[in-house]
Amino acid sequence: MQLDRTDCDLVAALQNNGRLSNKELAARVGIAPSTCVVRLRRLIDGGALRGFHAEVDAHSLGVGLQAVVAVRLQRHSKALVESFRTHALSQPEVVALYHMAGADDFLIHVAVRDPEHLREMAMTAFTTREEVAHLQTSLIFEHVDRHRMPSYIEPDER
Q1: pTM for the complete prediction?
Q2: Is residue 157 part of a domain?
Q3: d(CA 51, CA 40)
Q4: Which of 35, 62, 121, 146 suits a disulfide with 31, CB 3.0-4.6 Å?
Q5: pLDDT, tens digit, 9 for 90 and up, residues 60-88
Q6: Hey, how many other C-beta atoms are within 10 angstroms of the C-beta on 2?
Q7: Claim to verify: residue 81 and residue 113 sit in the same structural domain
Q8: Is 155 inside any structural domain?
Q9: Is 62 left (phi over 0), alpha (psi -120 to 50) or beta?
Q10: % helix, strand, coil for the chain, step of 5
Q11: Residues 33, 65: one domain?
Q12: How would DSSP label each residue in 83-130?
């Protein structure tokens, strides 16, 4: 989807504050509210905007510990990668999954109650999988998600 300057401004404004009303968003970008609605629908339907989310305090949900689990598979075949990916994403503790190039095949961000929960989750969800060759777990001391992507496109001036 080709974005023009107005589309880029809409995306930037929403990345800074996803709770802006249509009227506020239109005013910030300098377009009519009716135009804003049409453009937002086009951005959503075209896949440029993939969703709107609430940022939640992990501790308020009972999360006491977060970690990144590096997973190395026995072999890197499409079937094994897809099987492990599907399995990992089915785990409620998995916050994010990254399929990687390099020594590790996956980096998996998990959120758990405590160290015992982390150990049990790693042992039952990952080490029992026959496609897994190696795990390495690193604790997260701080997690800051900026909730925005940088833009490297030169938007049309339409």
Answers
A1: 0.82
A2: no
A3: 11
A4: 35
A5: 999 999 999 999 999 989 999 999 999 99
A6: 10
A7: yes
A8: no
A9: left
A10: 40, 20, 40
A11: no
A12: HHHHHHHTSTTEEEEEE-SSS-SEEEEEEESSHHHHHHHIIIIITT-T
